Amino acid sequence: MLDREEFQRDGVTVVRNVLDRAWLDRLAASIEANLAAPGPHGKNHAEEGGAYFGDYVNWQRFPDFLHVASEGPLGKLAGELMGASAARFFHEHVLVKEPGNNSSTPWHQDMPYYCVAGARTVSLWVPLDPVAKSESLNFMKGSHRDKKTYMPRRFKTLEPLEGDVTDYAPFPDVDADDPNVVSFAVNPGDVLAFDFHTLHDAPANPTNTRRRAVSFRFVGEDARYVARPHDVSPPFPELGLKLNMNDPLPEEWFPTVWQA
Fold it and tell me: I need a surface site. Which of 167, 186, 196, 247 has the fewest CB within 10 A?
């Protein structure tokens, strides 16, 4: 289908009207429950201005984060976009930028921060509030194609993560005026889909409304564990995951939510 062709070609696509009101209400309730009871890694990332709450890997406490993938439409969408025979749930990431937030997320690529590798990956960024193009994520079309893994950097200082990062490609200069930089206005029910290798950033939220979103991360049947030489996010080893390099992912940690 066209969305899959665009995703494979550009590393990003927007899919409209994926989630109905019932699923949006369930996700909104889960976000509020997560805000009220953060997990061990939930925190406000903003130093000043409106809050920027982030938390992840809470699907066992708030099971609708998993149900929207296994019973709802997201698992099937992820599998079809990846061209995979199965979609595995990697994790969910709650992201809430309150009105007046001035915390922007710099250009980065997700793959080097994760303890996983594979040819088939996708993040489904699901907004719970309308997001104008000027406040939406920006993507560098085609930046996923060579499957380079760029040096992971700290978001606030842009310094490399502590550890041996010599095997990563140098982080490229990104020109915000490059014609390949794209962004999309989205509404609740829409989904932004992008490859783990796709370069992207996220603006602050200077508006007077909240920007709630959940990013659902999926991998295909070929995914394997990677022991990175630096801290990873989410910190699965700290959470108790014990695997060796190139081990398959255990079902109890990363459940299969869709099969072709």
Answer: 167
Integer angstrom CA distances of residue 160 from 157, 173, 231: 9, 15, 11
DSSP H or E segment with residue 81:
helix 74-82
- Residue-wise DSSP of 158-173: -PBPSS--TTSBPPPP
Nearest to 102 by CA among 205, 202, 200: 205
Determine contact, residues 199/139, Cβ cutoff 8 Å: yes
Amino acid letter for position 69: A
138-195 tens-digit pLDDT: 999 999 999 999 999 999 999 999 999 999 999 999 998 999 999 999 999 999 999 9
- Report the 10 Å Cβ neighbour count for 120: 22
**Domains of the chain as residue ranges with CATH:** 2-236 (2.60.120.620)
